[in-house]
Amino acid sequence: METTGITGEIKPSPKLLRWFFFAAGVVATIAYRIIFLLDSYWIAVAWYVGTIGFIIYFGHRWHIENKRARMVEGYRLTGVIENSDIPAEKKSALLYLIKTSVTSKVRYNSLFIFIASMAALAADLLLRAYHIMR
Fold first, then answer.
1. CA 119 to CA 58: how far, in whole Å?
2. What Cα–Cα distance (Å) separates residue 56 from each residue in 4, 8, 16, 33, 72?
3. Spatial CA neighbour of 114 closest among 73, 55, 35, 71
4. Can you say how many angstroms the Cα of residue 31 is from the centroid of all Cα atoms in its chain?
5. Which of 30, 103, 107, 134 could form a disulfide with 65 if both were Cys (CB 3.0 to 4.6 A apart)?
6. In whole angstroms, what is the distance from residue 43 CA to residue 60 CA?
7. Whole-angstrom distance between the N-terminal and C-terminal Cα of the chain?
8. DSSP character for 2?
């Protein structure tokens, strides 16, 4: 079976690592949502926590969604399901899940948030360095 671009084992990440990424996303979201309640020092802390958390979470989400799409395409899973003898209703459900994992734009949304967060963090650090050196 040809599997273009697919390497490594097909198994989920360790449970602890999955909890880490989940927690990073939750903490980042909370940090951004409480900024309006904080004074200037804590606003900066919350902003950094939120931005770094979004980098971690959305970088991970982009990686996972990309991996899923590559697996569907590499293993030609759509054809496998279409040619299977699975009952029609279950086949339709599986095809929906498989096809939408390739066509969904969520991976591009995650990539955009990851890049935008990296750019915002880099811009902030560069501006801080510039003001310190002035």
1. 14
2. 27, 22, 15, 18, 25
3. 55
4. 18
5. 107
6. 25
7. 61
8. -
Give the C-alpha separation, 29 to 23, whole Å.
Answer: 10
Which helix (H) or strand (E) segment holds residue 96: the answer is: helix 88-103
Q: What per-residue confidence (pLDDT) applies to 48?
A: 98
> Cα–Cα distance between 27 and 111 in angstroms, integer?
19
Query: What length does the chain have?
Result: 134
**H-helix or E-strand spanning residue 107:** helix 106-133
Is the whole model's pTM more than 0.85, yes or no? yes
| Measured distance CA(27)–CA(104) in Å, rounded | 26
**Amino acid letter, residue 21:** F
Over its length of 134 residues, how does the chain's per-residue pLDDT go in tens digits? 455 556 667 888 999 999 999 999 999 999 999 999 999 999 999 999 999 999 999 999 999 999 999 999 999 999 999 999 999 999 999 999 999 999 999 999 999 999 999 999 999 999 999 999 98
Q: What is the pLDDT of residue 8?
A: 64
In the block, tokens 């902030």 appear at 124
